[in-house]
Amino acid sequence: MTKSILLVGVGGQGTILASKLLTAGLLEAGYDVKMSEIHGMSQRGGSVSSQVRYGGKVEAPVIEVGGADMLVAFEKMEALRWLKYLKPEGKVVVNDFEIPSMPIITGKADYPAGIIEELSGRVRTTVIDAARQAEALGNPKVMNVILLGTIITAMNLKAIDWAKIIRDNVKPQLAELNIQALEVGMSLV
């Protein structure tokens, strides 16, 4: 059976790296994996999404509306934007983190209030503060790997050697920090 995970965020949050690490781990475990990514205006703080589908045989890389088993939002407004892609019984992990879009920065719009409450009222939602967890580890840039850890636990993928995947795919001087971040994320779900 094919499983579908949608990772969404804002440019610069490491969404694509997290999905590439996830894909590498799934391939290492012997799954057929398809990944697609949409960068939008990622260099300018725009929406970024990555779709990872895995199983015995995956026919297409794209997740249809209502087809995601899991939605992982690196930024909470993105969770609402992409919620229609989640299956009714799907899981949401949302990072309680705000990055104002250009209309909000320029004063043409307000950041929506009550996002977490709305998500929690509609679907199974786990809220984490990956920024605070990353700060506790001493590097805010590992927020993405913390969020990757939540996927590993929620999708029951702990048997994969994630430490090896990280060592094979990140700079050697950052490998141990990222392994710690992954372990933190795995413990949050």
From TrEMBL:
InterPro entries: IorB_Oxidoreductase (IPR052198), Pyrv/ketoisovalerate_OxRed_cat (IPR019752), Pyrv_flavodox_OxRed_cen (IPR002869). Keywords: Oxidoreductase, Pyruvate. Residues 11-186 form the Pyruvate/ketoisovalerate oxidoreductase catalytic domain. The keyword Oxidoreductase applies. The keyword Oxidoreductase applies. GO terms for molecular function: oxidoreductase activity, acting on the aldehyde or oxo group of donors. This is Indolepyruvate ferredoxin oxidoreductase beta subunit. SUPFAM superfamilies: Pyruvate-ferredoxin oxidoreductase, PFOR, domain III.
